[in-house]
Amino acid sequence: MTDQRWVYSFEDINDALEMYKGDWKKVTGLLGGKGANLARMCSIGITVPSGFTISTECCNKYLELENEFPEGMWDQALVALKKVEENTGKKIGDKKNPLLVSCRSGAAQSMPGMMDTVLNIGLNDETAKAMVALTNDERFVYDSYRRLVQGFGAIVLGIDDEKFEHPLGNYKKEKGFKFDNELKADNWKEVLELYNKVIMEEKGMKFPQDPMEQIKMSIKAVFSSWNVPRAIQYRERTGIPHTLGTAVNLQTMVFGNMGEEHSGTGVAFTRNPSNGKKEIFGEFLFNAQGEDVVAGIRNALPISALNDKLPKCYEQFIQECAKLENYFKEMQDVEFTIEQGKLYFLQTRNAKRTAVSRFKTMFDMVEEGLIDKKTAIKRISSDDVDMMLHPQFDPNVLKLAQKQGKLFATGVAASPGAAVGKMYFSSKKCVEMAKEGPVIMCRPFTKPDDVDGMFASKGLFTAEGGATSHAAVVARQFGIPCVVGCNVLIDEEKKTVTINGITLNEGDWVSIDGTTGSIYSAKIPTIQVKLEEQKHFMSILQWCDEFCAKEGIRDIKNGPSRGLMVWANADTAEDATRARSFGAQGIGLCRTEHQFLGDRAGILREFILTEDKDKKKEALDKLEVLQTKDFEELFIAMTDLPVVVRLIDPPLHEFLPDLLELTREVYELRGKGEKNEEKELMLKKAEQMHESNPMLGLRGVRLSIVLRQLVAMQTTAITQGAINAKKKGFNPVPEIMIPLVGHPNELKEIQPEVEEVSQNLLKKNNVEIEIKIGTMIEIPRACLVAPQLTKYAKFFSFGTNDLTQMTFGYSRDDAESGFLLKYVEDDILPRNPFKSVDQIGVGRLIKMCVDEGRESQPMMDIGVCGEHGGDPKSIKFFSQAGLTYVSCSAYRVPVARLSACHAILD
Ligand code: ADP
Ligand code: MG
Ligand code: MG
């Protein structure tokens, strides 16, 4: 097969495009990002130095042939080179007008680790003389020549760059030069001799004088660089397939280093990469080549400097940037060079930018009519949304801290966002010091006792634990930046923390980045984006909602919904208000037991401990008053939107002190001959209530069945709360959810009572409110009997946490602190099923339940509450399964809104 096409001149892009039927993605795969975009610029009339691309397929073939060019390739390259010679009027190796080229690697995705670019290929002792005659600038020519020898030696021959830098440094010292631009032509000639020696010493060969040999060797080096360890490692880390290969671009050299007046080189963004403003943002250096601008050798000038000195070029540049944006329909990041007043583009690609800039540029481009809303949404990632929600370090101060070596420790990035404060080691101290200023908590690990301190802190880091440790889970739920598992040594006595021989003391300033997992021993100020002011962020998420929502998602007559709604889990009016401000369209889970915490725990304890009926009732009445108030506030905060209140769920002994501790305490007292009545009673009760498997014990609906008084009290509080809200002019939409049902008879037992209590109360108050009663689906059996459940339940909500636990037969805590990590590492499980829903197993149950449930009740709301509701991958699955909504923590709501939309766009 000699007719395979390996080489494409920039102007032949249409051949490749035709081959792939107009699919630019595939063309980019063939020619690499750099090559494809050079050709595309060429095709819209932007001036690009003439050149050609050797395809990624050729790279693969070359490697397959163990470093041989495939048949036909070199001939094709010679033809393409001839074309370049025609285009430029120059000739390779010509003694009058020699063609010089650069050799640039370029895979489909930009990838560090690949071979660097070699500039000035084609120079040798002869062509150098020709260039001197042409340019009349000997200094420029010999500087370029020595750059080629250095670049070729280092990049193509693989000689350590130091071997070139060192003699140059010595030479400059000897001659009393400080900067490269002080060297004259003769100096560079002498350096060139030094470099030639280096190559001879290191490789036992002469620098190849034959330009064709230079080209050949450079191409081979690019292909081979695909498999250098650095590149392989990078691909493994980022999941880029090893089979893509890299393309090679050979391109006519243009020179920005031909004098101070009319030549130079620059890089620019077509819009501002930090804030997204529509203005060219870039830097320019006169009399410079290649990476001089990025390397920061001299201070680059703002792009406007170009306007002052070369206004025509500047104007052309601005116009071409606009042309590029119009063509690529995306913000670009370009490299360009001006050679004696003539502008060339050397590269363009979609620009990287901050999240703020991403939202603004996407919003603006829709307004400008450049792209549609769908395209804009697709280009935003959940990371972009995340970054908007959490504070970030001031980038300038961060850079400085990094330069000064202030990185103290690293760990698992457990909860995103940056935080800065003085460090303390106990929960109590954190609470106390938080009154004086921002604090950061540092603990070996955290327990429920530490929660007060966590709330008081701006952020925390722990020595132990992984991404699902207590610290990590709580921090994520409440949006506290957190790094866990830092392997630091904490001395709580001395109040110090040590790692790598560096010790910090209590009260020292630290800055932690929960997005990257870094801890700095420095005070780095943070910047928080004010979401309310982020018109673009808010609007784009609004578009997401519009794509998802339908003329009434709950109205089956208008056809099935297009996508998911996003609700939030919130236990208090304050939580709910926050969730609503993030765009939640309902509360999918209000855990009533969270209202029993703090000073209220005593009342519930009273209820549990006393055997006296009147006293029991008294305790319940007290709780009822408190809960009624809570619900009223919650319904007011969520007026017009549904609020799903779950009846009490956890085993009651969770409200008593820990059995072991209690036992120890009582026995200690007894040992001293003391007997504390209350503690004795508590122990007796705790012993009675002790279960060997509380997760599978007396909890959920079972509690309601065994302790009837609780159901009536909670239903009354919910209903009365709604009545109060309504009387104040609000529109409460309460729904009551019965948890942990496995058998329809459990619902049959409880649902009528809930119905009766609430209806009676509504009638008594002469108020009409629809209160839907539904059930949580979290036991596999419930999924199997969905049709029977719909007799009593008007909605379903999957508790995917418990459903995952029970389907796998894992206890989450034990699994995550135990074997799960090994399971994932050893590929026994593809991922932690508590993070991203297990679609094949748990998902199958969900689908079955949805399909069979909807068969009997087609208009039923079916949602998901629990952490999976905020996970983009799971959201996609829930969307396809036909759910009505996902409910997640307030901080995940914006991410979920985007993901819900992504799920239906692609
Ligand atoms: P990278 O992928 O690292 O950006 P490039 O291939 O873009 O590598 O090249 C490195 C530098 O050399 C860039 O500044 C680029 O503009 C410059 N360069 C590459 N080819 C040429 C050329 N033909 N003429 C002038 N400068 C070039
Ligand atoms: Mg580079
Ligand atoms: Mg580049």
TrEMBL record:
Q: Where is the signal peptide?
A: none
Q: Any idea which UniProt keywords this protein has?
A: ATP-binding, Kinase, Magnesium, Metal-binding, Nucleotide-binding, Pyruvate, Transferase
Source organism superkingdom? Eukaryota
Reaction(s) the record says it catalyses: pyruvate + phosphate + ATP = phosphoenolpyruvate + AMP + diphosphate + H(+)
Q: Which PROSITE patterns match?
A: PEP_ENZYMES_2, PEP_ENZYMES_PHOS_SITE
Is the keyword Kinase in the record? yes
- EC number(s) given by UniProt: 2.7.9.1
- Residue ranges of the PEP-utilising enzyme C-terminal domain? 564-900
- Domain Pyruvate phosphate dikinase AMP/ATP-binding as annotated: residue spans: 30-65, 80-299, 319-362
List the Pfam families.
PEP-utilizers, PEP-utilizers_C, PPDK_N
Protein name, UniProt field: Pyruvate, phosphate dikinase
Which species is the source of this protein?
Anaeramoeba flamelloides
The taxonomic lineage of its organism, from the top, reads: Eukaryota, Metamonada, Anaeramoebidae, Anaeramoeba
